[in-house]
Amino acid sequence: MEENALMFDLRRTAARRVCATAVAWHASGGTPRTIAYDELVSLAETAARGLHALGVRPGDRVADFCDEGPSVVLAILAIGCAGAVLVPLDPAAPPLRLRRLILDSQPAIALCSAGSAMVRLAGGGGASGASTHSCDAPACTSRAFFSEEERPASDCAGCELGVKTVTLELLLELGRSFQRTQREAAASGSTATEQGPAGESLRRAGSLPLSHLVYTSGSSGTPKGVACPAAALHSYCLAKVAAQRIDASSRVLLASAHTWDPCVGDVWSTLSAGGTLCLVSR
Length: 282
What we know:
This protein is an alpha/beta fold and about 280 residues long. About 35% of the residues lie in helices and about 15% in strands.
């Protein structure tokens, strides 16, 4: 299976704008921070390998609770790089709504920043058949995304999501470990090749069936999932770049919540065009 065309476009742009700023934000305390295109793509690929190491395959759904700061961008890119289907969920939503959406979407894994959705759902009457999963989240070694004051505590609370839950920080660690294993296998003369989401066999332009699955508010009844094909998102981003004249000189404010379609479109269109995503704290 081939990776989505947007990731192909992003890699092509990153190759041209290696040291250019991809994402800009202010860390805790107001310190300005940036990350370049080459490091952003590297982190996305590492996180995608982490998803692969946990058994996520192209077409699987991944619940995304990363709703603040640069983690928003990295989670979207990592899931796309893995060829998985993004299911953005609001960790501040009522627990009952979250459990219903999880039961409906049936994600293979839930991805969140340490202490966010996990703490909110801890200990409160999980979905039928759900099992409690707790994880230990080591401090992230990527200083590009997490400053000392932003790094999470050493472990996070258990939750009853009904799916395996992993922090973005731990996912990066798993991805690095997975990559080391692949390199060691290659060095030993093993014929095994990486067939996962970030494998060379997947680095061709193509189209996966779905990009993301977003849910309606449910104000008129049960929340409904709206599936967006990957090809449709790609076409939308190309049209958005042309209509809004987004290019390498553009600085785009990521103002929409990660659970809204505009957020996904802004991330992919801005980065594929070589612009800079500007983040603000909520």
